[in-house]
Task: structure prediction
Amino acid sequence: MISNNQDLKAYNTFGISVSASHFASFSTIEELKYAIQQFPNEELLILGGGSNVLFTKDFKGLVLRNEIKGFEISDRTVDSVIVKAGAGEVWHEFVLNCIDEGLAGLENLSLIPGSVGASPMQNIGAYGVEIKDVFHSLEAYHLSSGEIHTFDAKSCEFGYRESVFKRKLKGQYVILSVSFKLSSNPNLNTSYGAIESELKNMGIEHPTIKDISNAVIAIRSSKLPNPKEIGNAGSFFKNPVVDETVVAEILKTYPDAPNYPAEPGKRKLAAGWLIEQAGWKGKTVENHGVHKLQALVLVNYGGATGQQIWDLSSAIIASIEAKFGVTLEREVNIL
Result:
């Protein structure tokens, strides 16, 4: 059923109240095609969990919420298995289903908000694991031709929080399903110290994939606000990748500044650390601000507009550039 002038507050985790000219959900390809056919000349927006978007104004077009479900295991071998999920599945629930099946590879990505379909679009990652590490393929509906195309990892052109769907092919496809190559013999990734510390606090010396997941859930819950309680979209900024010379200059003043290897000649800085050093952590501006426990997270305490959040992010970017000579890039999609 298609509704007109739909308030999208309930469909984005920032809780921003904006209106869509037309709105519908779809759980099959037929429903997707039908809705598009009703408004062939309208601008189209596909929403999953609404966890990586900031609405700064009303959307003058058709918003479609992807609710395609499905969980299928195939191609099982001694060491691996292919798991296919509908793009409308809730990501965290999908991860837990895989863990219940004894399938490893996604446990470090527990409690990330959003849908399965959004995961390859931005190559989501956390605690040493990215989607590209376990990705097998995806099926997507081509809006122009009406054909269903299959993408492997190479054709997705994964980068740091990037894929071909955010750049070259933006707005051309609707992701229908995603398949992952998971392991029946876990090779646990506890390289991030926070995980090791949490496992130690839990008294676990020989962790299972469920233990890793529980540790990640505990860490994320302690640092990140629940979108159901405080409007947010998780990490708002990407960790900047800069020349080694830039990092060397920062280390002269801040010898403990966290930084990590990137491509040759580059290092990755921690955006949250930069924001905190600039004095933004916990700062509140009227009814919005920067979260008190995680400087990467911008929050809507209730009633804020998307423009206010945007203006805050712009002020943060300007101050980081002035203080460190580093330009932060927004990870959230701005509409």
